[in-house]
Amino acid sequence: MHKSSYARMQWFVENYCNSPERNLSVLDIGSCAVNKEDPLQTYRPLFAGDKFSYTGLDMVAGPNVDIAVKNPYCWRELEDTSFDVVISGQVFEHIEFFWETMKEIARVLKPGGLLSIVVPGPFGVAYHACPVDCYRFFADGMIAMARYAGLEVVHASSAAAPQNAPDIWYETRDSFLIARKSEAHQPPDMGNYTFEKPDLEELRNGFIPDNYENQVYYDMFAVRIDGSGTLHELKNLEMVNLWALPDNRFYIWGTGGQYELHYQNLVQRSRPKNFIGFLDSNTEIQGTELDGYPVMAPQYCAQDKPDVIIIASHARKEIMESIRNIMNK
């Protein structure tokens, strides 16, 4: 489990689950401890003690699973309005039809009950199938999930943290939802649904967003190399997908200030499997490593034939001309 995900769930518990009057029943969706070597593999320790009654739910039996449901979208094993709190972390990106899951969550929550979900945001976590990896969520998406289930949004944020929070909160750019089931809960009538634009600043509840990476993607520059050696500049969405999906093998041309400014943080944190290494014309650093990846002469890409080359340099025109000459030899 990501440390940033654990930090958000801990914040939720400390700020919303501190009722001294009664024991709170807690349901954890996707609770299986799949990585035994991870000290933060489950949220169960956050709900230890007499204040809570914790139940882990998953699709299959395993460590930290109390209930293995037969149907992931129809939990016949659970009665209506049976839990005070429902939580889920780093799971919804793997659920094919998460909107159906949201309806089941609304069904099993007690009136007045709370929901807390942590999921990867668009810029923080690379593709990781378990067994599939379907989605990334902005704050708008978290709000839409709650609305679809007829839940009231208490908090929604993406890549944001409380003031003075440690840097770990920004590590994987998580999106975070807290929602409540009202006493008079009614799912929306989609045939008569009227859109209302959410106030994202208000729903962040004072959390401070980190817009660094949003800007980074706009500042990046890369070219795709087609079969004929022609170069095509990547659009912003293609740049996001380049880092999030393993479909295209790529180099970064340049190891100096532009790399440090725009790309080093992404390389060090996400460790993309489709990133081959660096190209640099400086013969003194060729054959060395940077951030765990090899630094090679530009000519090397002619035999390796990458799909994309990111240009981390102000000399874009000159480097593009060099790429054309190398690839067309």
Give a topology summary:
Blueprint: H1 3-16, E1 24-29, E2 52-58, E3 67-68, E4 83-89, H2 98-108, E5 109-119, H3 139-148, E6 152-158, E7 160-161, E8 175-180, H4 200-203, E9 208-209, H5 212-219, E10 222-225, E11 231-233, H6 236-244, E12 250-253, H7 257-262, H8 264-270, E13 275-279, E14 289-290, E15 293-296, H9 301-304, E16 308-311, H10 316-327
Would you give an account of this structure?
The chain is an alpha/beta fold. The chain has 2 domains: 3-210, Rossmann fold, CATH 3.40.50; 213-327, Rossmann fold, CATH 3.40.50. 26% of the residues lie in helices and 23% in strands. The protein is built from 10 helices and 16 strands. It has helices at 3-16, 98-108, 139-148, 200-203, 212-219, 236-244, 257-262, 264-270, 301-304, 316-327, and strands at residues 24-29, 52-58, 67-68, 83-89, 109-119, 152-158, 160-161, 175-180, 208-209, 222-225, 231-233, 250-253, 275-279, 289-290, 293-296, 308-311. The strands form 3 sheets. The chain has a 7-stranded mixed sheet, with helices on both faces. It has a 7-stranded mixed sheet with strand order 11-10-16-12-13-15-14, covered by helices on one side. It has a two-stranded antiparallel ribbon with strand order 7-9. The longest helix is centred in the first third of the chain and has 14 residues, at 3-16. Keywords: Methyltransferase, Transferase. GO terms for molecular function: S-adenosylmethionine-dependent methyltransferase activity. Residues 77-116 form the Methyltransferase type domain. InterPro entries: Methyltransf_11, SAM-dependent_MTases_sf.
